[in-house]
Design a protein that fits this description.
Blueprint: H1 8-19, H2 23-36, E1 41-47, E2 53-58, H3 68-71, H4 98-104, E3 107-113, E4 120-126, E5 129-136, E6 141-147, H5 154-159, H6 163-180, E7 185-190, E8 193-197, H7 204-212, H8 214-219, E9 221-227, E10 230-236, E11 249-253, E12 256-258, H9 261-271, E13 283-288, E14 294-295, E15 306-307, H10 310-328, E16 340-341, E17 358-359, E18 393-398, E19 402-407, E20 410-415, H11 416-434, E21 443-453, H12 456-472, E22 475-478, E23 483-490, H13 498-511, H14 517-532, H15 542-553, E24 568-571, H16 573-579
Parallel strand pairs: 1-7, 11-13
Antiparallel strand pairs: 1-2, 2-6, 3-4, 3-6, 4-5, 7-8, 9-10, 10-13, 11-12, 14-15, 16-17, 18-19, 19-20, 20-24, 21-23, 22-23
Helix pairs in contact: 1-4, 2-6, 6-7, 9-10, 11-14, 11-15, 12-13, 13-14
The protein binds adenosine-5'-diphosphate and magnesium ion.
Adenosine-5'-diphosphate binds at residues 29, 33-34, 37, 58, 60-63, 71, 77-79, 93-100, 142.
Length: 586
């Protein structure tokens, strides 16, 4: 075929595809325009999950009548005058293509009246063509109506998710903006139901409940930090509250939502080993910095940014989150759990194995190892100044899962699996860090080497990680394009099926997007330990129980497992006396 210029409608639909992917993208662009217009109040109305109608009304500055047709022209903006200004953008919009894009894939109506005009104007655009412009009575501000989104792009319609999913995306998006702009009043209705309403009184905590629900909002920790030019505010979850994905960890930079994996890593590092592998905190952080220190012109959706000094931003975020975590858990010790004996019908969760009905407060304050937060990411170390456990006298095992021990100050309940994980973790890390250049880790050679076949992506990953695996005591070699030959495994994993052991590790690589080697390694080791540790429900001999206690006493961070869960609960004599009504009033 000869080369031809694309007809304008096709070109603009292609361009629109970059910005307007789904109903939520329309909502985002319209919200940003309202914010840029200085709105104090923004109302959003959604019908048909955004396919039938998206209407955003604001009380901002409005659009002058003569500018109205320009607003829907591509590359027409009131927010940018020169190329230099591109490097210090202080508005959310600047590309001048959102309205043009929306206009080319929907039926668009804009009604606007600047406060100083007596009468408003209404502009209609269909499939990118202006169809009418007429005077109308209208309140000051702007109303943008987007109807029948993608009516002329059937391919795009097919890719939309279930209505419920699209609606949820819109809820989530608007709520995040409401939190980012607490001084603006937001009102969102979906299918005639109010799904968000904020007061615009400037208090973020109030909006937080809308984002996470009241229970979660109550325990979220506030982040407030200012270091020279970088401000970090927002909320993060305590270590007791995590999610299985990083989706609920979001960032705004100078008032715009951004996706930046390195910011996620910064937050994860601040939590250090306090989170289980594969668990993520939730939170929302607002970074403020001078506009010239961040390039927002990276991607049409403006969701990616480039920081001029990314390591400063990284460490600033890490420190800010760390500070919030430490402020919350002032004592590096397992605090006294609020134990309540709740007999009667209202009994809480009864442990089916023990019949015991202990209720612990949802928030067992966790030990936060005091890791120095340096400018540069440091490899994980195990030698943190951490309270050791006292010498313990074994009492026995209960529910085939917990050890009961007595210490100088009361009773200790020890989670055998978590404790064993901690012990293995420290042994393995020590082995690996202290290994003499020529000494080899404790290795179990296999009598018969085992072949393991992996899918191509996993095989590629594994090949990259072979040197690390060798340091840990695996002897694995490529055996054809996707197969590997396992000749030896770390002694700690000797009891496991070697193929299963290797597959577990590969799974971990796949999930692991962290660019930081040290963190990836620590997580890998933690993953091995999780597999190798004795399980809950495993009956241990008295010998084994005693050995476990002794090993735990020797650990440098005995009170949490490598994933951050407590290994033990301490019930002090004092607490017991109170519970039995021997002391104090209750
Ligand atoms: P951009 O926001 O990048 O400038 P848009 O296509 O989103 O591009 O909007 C084009 C122009 O239309 C804006 O620059 C602004 O002047 C005007 N505009 C859009 N929405 C509004 C609004 N809600 N209130 C006032 N002006 C608006
Ligand atoms: Mg815009």
């Amino acid at each position: 075929m000869p080369i031809r210029l694309l007809p304008p409608e096709v070109a603009s639909q292609i361009a629109a595809g970059e910005v307007i992917e789904r109903p939520a993208s329309v909502v985002k662009e319209l919200l940003e325009n309202a914010v840029d217009a200085g709105a104090r109040s923004i109302a959003i109305k959604i019908e048909g999950a955004g396919r039938r109608l998206i209407e955003v009304s604001d009380d901002g500055v409005g659009i002058e009548p003569e500018d109205l047709p320009l607003a829907v022209a591509r590359h027409a903006t009131s927010k940018l005058n020169s190329a230099e200004e591109l490097f210090r953008i202080s508005t959310l919009g600047f590309r001048g293509e959102a309205l043009a894009s929306i206009a080319s894939v929907s039926r668009l109506t804009i009604t606007s009246r600047p406060a100083h005009q007596d009468i408003g104007r209404r502009l209609r655009v269909e499939g990118g063509q202006v169809s009418s412009l007429e005077p109308v009575g209208a309140p000051a501000g702007t109303v943008v109506r987007v109807e029948d989104l993608f009516y002329n792009v059937p391919a795009r319609l097919k890719f939309l998710k279930h209505e419920a999913t699209e609606r949820r995306q819109i809820d989530w998006l608007v709520t995040q903006y409401a939190l980012a702009y607490p001084q603006i009043r937001f009102h969102l209705s979906q299918e005639d139901r109010i799904s968000l309403q904020t007061s615009g009184n400037g208090y973020r905590r109030e909006v937080l409940a809308a984002l996470y629900g009241a229970d979660v909002a109550r325990i979220m920790l506030e982040v407030v930090a200012q270091e020279e030019w970088l401000g970090v505010t927002g909320f993060i979850s305590p270590t007791t509250l995590t999610r299985s994905s990083r989706r609920e960890l979001s960032f705004f930079v100078n008032g715009r939502p951004v996706h930046d994996p390195s910011l996620v890593v910064a937050v994860m590092q601040a939590y250090h080993t306090l989170l289980m592998v594969g668990r993520y905190p939730l939170g929302i952080l607002f970074l403020e910095m001078p506009p010239e220190t961040v390039d927002v012109n990276v991607h049409p959706t403006k969701a990616e940014v480039r920081f001029r000094d990314s390591s400063r931003v990284f460490s600033g975020v890490q420190r800010a989150v760390r500070k919030a975590l430490l402020a919350h858990t002032s004592m590096p010790e397992i605090g006294k759990p609020t134990v309540r004996w709740s007999g009667g019908l209202e009994a809480g969760k009864r442990d089916s194995k023990t019949g015991l009905d202990w209720q612990f407060s949802a928030e067992v304050p966790q030990a936060v190892p005091k890791v120095p937060v340096a400018d540069e990411p440091k490899p994980a170390t195990v030698s943190q100044p951490f309270p050791r456990v006292p010498i313990l006298r074994l009492v026995g095992q209960i529910a085939a899962s917990y050890l009961v021990a007595e210490g100088p100050d009361g009773l200790y309940l020890i989670d055998q699996h978590a404790a064993h994980e901690r012990i293995l973790y420290e042994k393995l890390i020590a082995q690996w860090h202290n290994a003499e250049p020529n000494s080899s880790p404790l290795v179990q050679m296999l009598l018969h080497p085992v072949t393991v076949e992996l899918p191509p992506a996993a095989a590629g990953l594994l090949t990259e990680k072979l040197p690390l695996l060798e340091q840990l005591g695996f002897q694995v070699e490529p055996f054809g394009p996707k197969a590997f030959l396992v000749r030896a495994v770390p002694q700690l994993l000797a009891s496991m099926d070697p193929a299963a052991a290797l597959k577990v590790l590969v799974e971990d690589f796949e999930e692991d997007e962290t660019p930081l080697q040290s963190e990836a390694e620590a997580r890998l080791v933690a993953r091995i330990c999780k597999r190798a540790a004795v399980k809950a429900g495993q009956v241990l001999s008295a010998e084994e129980q005693r050995a476990l206690l002794a090993d735990l006493e020797a650990c440098s961070s005995p009170r949490t497992c490598p994933h951050g869960r407590p290994t033990m609960i301490h019930l002090s004599v004092d607490l017991l006396e109170r519970q039995f009504g021997r002391k104090g009033a209750r």
